[in-house]
Write a structure and sequence with these properties.
about 475 residues, alpha/beta, FAD/NAD(P)-binding domain, Enolase-like, domain 1, 3 domains, seven-stranded mixed sheet, 22 strands, about 25% strand, binds flavin-adenine dinucleotide, binds 1,4-dihydronicotinamide adenine dinucleotide
Length: about 475
């Protein structure tokens, strides 16, 4: 078979790249080693985690907030089996949607491990049956990432688990010890904390979600404490032991004191590593950096001139929407267009409740770069909309250039921040000033009024409702 473009990996990077290639008239193939399409994001990432976050949030609200709303429930209990079943159904429907999109766009899907024979020939080896060969003009590698681990931790995938197993537990842990207070640790930790587990987070650095603006980590820690989380910040894990159903995580403080934390499950969520195993990169001479990422230039081209790479397998944020943008960029370049990605404006979201969302520069980055900036913040406790729904935790912080008032960064922790950040992305894409936003009418009562108020605060410290 001869194709114009072959995409290896069907995650959000790969399947979106394939769709855009097909839209642009290329004869396109998609190779996926698993039976289902959609990659990490749809099968064991974004979608299943959000499904469980929603279910557990319903339970938590029913248990803790409904009474205040005048709704009394008796015999409330969690049916974890049903919760996981619903999550699996959501995943099933979503991945079936990708199958449909492939057919609609006349993309040939080949299930099996894709491996380079040479720069225009890829071998596809299915889990069972005979291998075949594909001939192709261009290749887009979108093979994604896998969970990282520490050399001394044995992931038995029963008691010492990654996010993949944490999405499929058959019981609610009594005490889940989470190694790594990043995005996965806080999202999946929240799921089980809401369902009644004690959750302890062991984090090497001095704050949670450390890649985001520091205020966000501090605020998130406060609300997570209310949910019953325990935190061991500035602790370095030195050992993880399992005896039957018991797990002991040993960590060291900065002063060298050793702490033993005992639980029944340990979730290792210390980041993810690019995945290139079995791809046969050596057969085409494609290089990877120290972290195992495929090296690409500004056009996302590798050192082989017809082979490109996108998504988690290259540098940059490991986010589904970043992978998608890159898939579109490569497809359009192949068609002779001149697309562009503004990486500064790729938003980041943590789907805890309250949600955390962020775009642009953090305050720490601005300080480090020496840029003159001003800051305005508005707390949700001063929002009428937030009072109505009792979502009073959190704030929106706007950072703007001291001289021009251009918005440089927006960081929010609060109700529906995941959706609200889109307004900040639009504002920054059009290089709005804080005053531009402050002068736009925001419907009342909405959570988005808090963004306007934070912009007013950043403009001349003239927020109206505080
Ligand atoms: P992937 O989605 O990892 O897909 C790669 C695909 O390539 C896989 O299907 C793999 O089987 C296949 N493959 C690999 N090697 C080969 C080969 N040799 N031949 C054939 N196929 C191959 N991001 C967000 O933006 N929002 C979220 O809410 C979010 N939540 C997440 C929650 C969890 C628990 C996890 C783990 C991740 C989450 N992410 C989230 C991150 C997101 O899943 C990734 O950034 C995204 O999936 C990367 O897309 P990708 O296309 O680069 O790779
Ligand atoms: P992460 O990079 O978000 O967090 C890892 C955390 O582990 C960091 O806080 C880090 O300081 C800490 N850590 C590293 N080594 C450690 C050690 N030895 N001991 C203790 N702590 C240690 O990675 P995470 O949570 O595993 O997620 C992986 C990726 O998946 C993220 O980069 C994120 O981009 C993506 N993801 C995105 C989501 C979203 O967009 N909502 C949800 C889940 C994952």
């Amino acid at each position: 078979m001869q194709y114009d473009v072959t995409v290896i990996g069907s995650g959000p990077g790969g399947y979106v790249a394939a769709i855009r290639c097909a839209q642009l008239g290329f004869k396109t193939a998609l190779i996926e080693k698993y039976d289902t399409l959609g990659g990490t994001c749809l099968n064991v990432g974004c979608i299943p985690s959000k499904a469980l976050l929603d279910s557990s949030e319903h339970y938590h609200n029913a248990e803790t907030h409904f009474k205040e709303h005048g709704i009394n429930l008796t015999n409330l209990k969690v049916d974890l089996k049903q919760m996981i079943k619903r999550k699996n159904e959501v995943v099933g429907q979503t991945v079936a949607g990708v199958d449909f999109l492939m057919k609609k766009n006349k993309i040939d899907v080949h299930h099996g491990l894709g491996s380079f024979i040479d720069k225009n020939t890829i071998k596809v080896t299915p889990a069972s049956g005979k291998a075949s060969e594909i001939k192709t003009d261009k290749v887009i590698i979108a093979t994604g990432s896998k969970p990282s681990n520490l050399p001394f931790i044995e992931l038995d995938k029963k008691r010492v688990i990654t996010s993949t197993e944490a999405l499929n537990l058959t019981e609610i842990p009594k005490h889940m010890i989470v190694i790594g207070g990043g995005v996965i640790g806080m999202e999946l930790g929240s799921v089980y904390a809401r369902l009644g587990s004690k959750v302890s987070v062991v984090e090497f650095l001095d704050s949670l979600i450390p890649t985001m603006d520091k205020t966000m980590g501090k605020e998130l820690q406060k609300v997570a404490k209310k949910l019953g989380f325990d935190f061991y910040l500035k602790h370095k894990v030195t050992a993880v032991g399992v005896k039957g159903k018991n797990v002991t995580v040993t960590a060291e403080t900065q002063k060298g004191e050793s702490v033993d934390i005992k639980g029944d499950y340990c979730l290792v969520s210390i980041g993810r590593r690019p995945y290139t195993e079995g791809l046969g990169l050596e057969n085409v001479g494609i290089s990877t950096d120290k972290a195992g990422r495929i090296e690409v230039d500004e056009h996302l081209k590798t050192n082989v001139d017809n082979i490109y790479a996108i998504g988690d397998v290259i540098k940059g944020a490991m986010l589904a929407h970043k992978a998608e943008e890159e898939g579109v960029l490569v497809a359009e370049q192949l068609a002779g267009q001149k697309p562009h990605i503004n990486y500064l404006l790729i938003p980041g979201v943590v789907y805890t409740w309250p949600e955390v969302a962020s775009v642009g520069y953090t305050e720490e980055q601005l300080k480090e770069s020496g840029r003159a900036y001003k800051s305005g913040a508005f707390p949700f406790k001063a929002s009428g909309r937030a009072r109505a729904s009792m979502d009073l935790d959190g704030q929106i912080k706007v950072l703007a250039d001291s001289n021009t008032d251009e918005i440089l960064g927006v960081h929010m922790i609060g109700p529906r921040a995941a959706d609200m950040i889109a307004e900040a992305v639009v504002a920054m894409e059009y290089r709005a000033s804080a005053e531009d936003i402050a002068r736009m009418s925001h419907a009342h009562p909405t959570f988005t009024e808090s963004f306007k108020e934070a912009c007013l605060a950043a403009t001349e410290n003239r927020a109206l409702h505080i």
